[in-house]
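Hi support team,

I'm opening this ticket because the web form for multi-chain structure prediction keeps timing out on my end. I have pasted the exact lines I submitted so you can reproduce it. The total is 581 residues across two entries, so I didn't expect it to be a heavy job. Is there a limit I'm missing, or should I split the entries? Thanks in advance, R.K.
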Amino acid sequence: MALEETHVRRAAHLARLAISDDQASRFVDDLSQILDMVDQLQRIDTDGVAPLAHPLDATQRLRADEVTETNQRDTFQRCAPVVEDGLYLVPRVVE
Amino acid sequence: MHDKTLTQLAAALQKSELSSRELTAHYLQRIEKADATLNSFISVTTEQALTQADAADQARARGKTNLLNGIPLALKDIFCTQGIKTSCGSKMLDNFVAPYNATVVEKLNEAGGITLGKTNMDEFAMGSSNENSHYGPVKNPWDLSAVPGGSSGGSAAAVAAGLTPAAFGTDTGGSIRQPASFCGITGLKPTYGRVSRYGIIAYASSLDQAGPMARTAEDCAHLLNVIAGHDARDSTSVARVVPDYAEALNAPLSGLKIGLPVEYFGDGLDPDVEKAVREAVKVYESLGASVREVSLPHTHYAIPAYYVIAPAEASSNLSRYDGVRFGHRCENPEDLIDLYKRSRDEGFGNEVKRRILIGTHTLSEGFFDAYYKKAQQVRRLIRQDFLNAFKDVDVLMGPASPTTAFELGAKKDPVSMYLQDIYTIAVNLAGIPGISVPAGFVGNRPVGLQILGTHFAEAQLLNVAHQFQQATDWHQKRPAFAEETA
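Hello R.K., no limit was hit. The queue was backed up. Here is the completed structure from your submission:
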């Protein structure tokens, strides 16, 4: 499956990565190489093989629906770039 | 002092032959002297380490007898450490001071371990040479023109150079075993789920696992004793009894069945590395083990499967770096999308961007089945290869890496770097444990013997590795660099 620049630009937008024209053409080359290597997978017959998401086939444990965490907003906001009155500040979204 | 193993240092502390403060000050001094050359640490926590050392000495005086009490350690900069910068080797987290401790760090603190500092690494653990760090490459103490391996390259180099008795790393596709091999130390990747991932900055969550890196298998056993176990805060950690990993170290190996995967001795393997590994296997035969060839037929599909699964998980895990809640934020964003896009463009290095883009692309509409689902199906076949092999043999042995440490700057394109991990990556896909132990040299560069076991066979791997280290002295060799900086 050949990779085109539109694919890279679409992925960059979905991943919220700014990408210059120079970068875009370089990433087309790098990612094409990687996907060519990945395409070896198509040689294996995997009909009827169930996908493996977790190496131990574990199931999710359940716990009681109870509050176990305390509110540590001040602590966690200490590493934020910009906060005010306990809120994270971002550029205006709604004009 | 720095020639001793962790186990020997623990005995010396126990007998009050030295204090933790003396020991800690010694290693801090070594770091100060040698690390301008090696670059193995991102942060050195001098004051905190000395405070912890005094506390450990006081605790010992009051009767605390934990083996680890007062022992200096280093942590890969991927473990969250409360109040200490936790960068993950990235510009994105250059300003991040973790607000909490990883479970591994909590356990080490409770045991009385001393944190000397945070070690250098490939950015977000993505790399096999430590050249992808925002903080610059690490040098291999055996040969300063060579890489230390990656991604836990700082941890491996620091142990090899005698800047710390032991360190912790993480291994998603070989990131403990390959640098351990390149730096001539012992490094264990436990079974997936054996050690809590809570507070370890996530790369690929279904593959990541933390483990010890030290001089000897015996040291690794004592370290694993402290960090292993179930943690309610990591839903993938396994609720299973933790044995005493030091207890079985001396079990005899007579009757041990060793399998040599034919695929691990094929094209691309440096003949001198092969020779060293086969010599090591002969040592096992002399200890009473039997050896036979086995096959892991899907070995060559492990790298392709990994480079779908790991980037897919990474693209999701790394979406949290948005320039809003923590980490790097760009100047003067025009709007919210611009804030996200430029913060991420500026904060991430090229290898991280490549993997985010690959992951986003392969998960996107129209490509998901051909890539992600296919890779997960192949993942099951790869795991089955190992399970089949372990029906016939107890452990598998082979090289940890096809070559010894390569030159800094030698691997120019990403795929040639990825192919380095041919012998380590399948292990993470299968979730089994693996250990690399020193097994010789090619010139002045160390060779690592990799030993693999079935799920939760850590005690057996450590026993098998320890017996090798009773019969050989490769693990006692020290780089000249460590002596020059003495």
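A quick check on our side: Chain B has a mean pLDDT of 97. Let us know if the file doesn't open in your viewer.
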